[in-house]
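Record format v2
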Amino acid sequence: MPSSAPGEATSQAPARTIENKGSDTIVNLALAWAEKYQDLHQEVRISVTGGGSGTGIAALINGTVDIANASRQIKPEEIKAAEANGTEPVEFVVARDAIAVIVNPENPVNHLTLQQISDIYSGKIDNWLGVGGEDRPIVKLSRETNSGTHVYFLEEVLRLGDKDNKTLFSADTLLLPSSEGITAEIRDNINAIGYDGLGYVTPEVKVVAVSGVDGGNFVLPSATSVNNSTYPIARDLYMYTNGEPGGVIKEYMDWIHTPEAQEIVNELGFVPILSQ
Amino acid sequence: MNTSLSRTEFIITRLIKVSGYSAIIFVGMIFYFLISEGLPTLGEVKLTALLSTRWYPIEDYFGILPLLAGSLIVTLGAALIAVPVGIGTAVYISEIAPRWAREILKPLVEVLGGLPSVVLGFLGILILAPYLHRILNLPTGLTALAGSILLGGIAIPTIVSVAEDALDAVPRSYRDASLALGATEWQTIWGVTLPAARSGVLTAVMLGIGRAIGETMTVMMVTGNAPVMPSSLGALFAPARTMTATIAAEMGEVANGSVHYHVLFFIGIVLFLISLIVNVTASAVVFRQARRVERLLS
């Protein structure tokens, strides 16, 4: 807790360095947390690097970092490798990430199922009539292939989370380099559909309610629906430590779950964890 | 005094020589780098896969044909706009405009040439694309056409200033002779001045097209970047993905030394070869015409 640390160590040089490495999706969030925490606790130094979830977990297994960041859960084979190496990864959910599907405000379509979104992006449905809208062509917008959001959308929406599914984005999907480009096109074009991290959605576009299964409830993304897992296009973001953390690392992990730290999650466009 | 002068002269001559050769050396080094990073592609990706029509590098689809076609279609559209407008503007500034208009127009064209392409891209996203979408009733305004129009705008200042210099260099006596023989002003421009400045005008066009095919930022912002294989000229009104935009969008995140990395450099080689072919063709044409003129005069 913030109150316990400063007293004894303020006059000394940094007492402890925390090594933090992993997912590029959360590297900015981890950096923002680290900067804020170092402001509050001058005696702690936190070094944050990216490289990907796999890289971070591998480093944790090899004992070269204290905390691994991951935008996916640790795999069984990674747990095995950790046991073989004498390390014991402990999981913390530190924030959540939701992807909103957006359309032009004048588009009468208000809700879609995951299957319909998949069919739209794979090119099987190319007219809004096919999903209960007006007789207009569908213009599909996506982030560039190097974006983590693109890959997540491909795996969880286009392929419906099925590893053996080899569905691809239809070749006429527009790949835009920025969130701004997607928002601008959707604002001006009633034919367009797009997706982006919930934090990047502006009031000029309409968010579509999504149902995970055909015939299920349609849910709008929000902090509540993401936290109780009713919104289907959302994922947890994780940090892993080696064994139950103690000392400085435990204080840092505890601080990350405080409202103060979760406010930073909000600012960076992710969904904060609501205190249960 | 004299020795110091000749020493200065010696140094300056050498410096000029070095900067002259450096251009060749740099091009050579760039070419070597491109080859060494791009050629491994041919060992890693089958030629049939490389010449296929699907580009989706994160799943190992490396068909570069839609990118090549995208670049060609956007550049062709830009040339169709920029060449007539550019040469027309150059003719107007050099031959027809009154002195005061010329003094306003020339600097204005140069300012247009100095506009950062990312600014043009913003105008494209916010104004041109929605406008095309509405006026032409297209599914989306982010099309090859939007790219062509903006690239045309980028190529025009280059074409105008080089072509205008070429027209300016045609001796006054040519025009006077033509007018004295009873030709109209238009006949003089079309039959005498333009042909006399032919090689300079052709250079202007080639430089303009070269500027267009290499332009990245603007096209990346307005063409929609969808790697669709065009099937007809209607592709001008559909989204397209150019080679330059592909390299720019994907190079930042690609793992150094991976297949995808090598393919991006291979696309660089293709771009390099295209601009080489354009330039060689242009100078061959200019050279042949020069020979013909010499024959006629001798």
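Chain B has 13 helices and two strands.
The mean pLDDT of chain B is 89.
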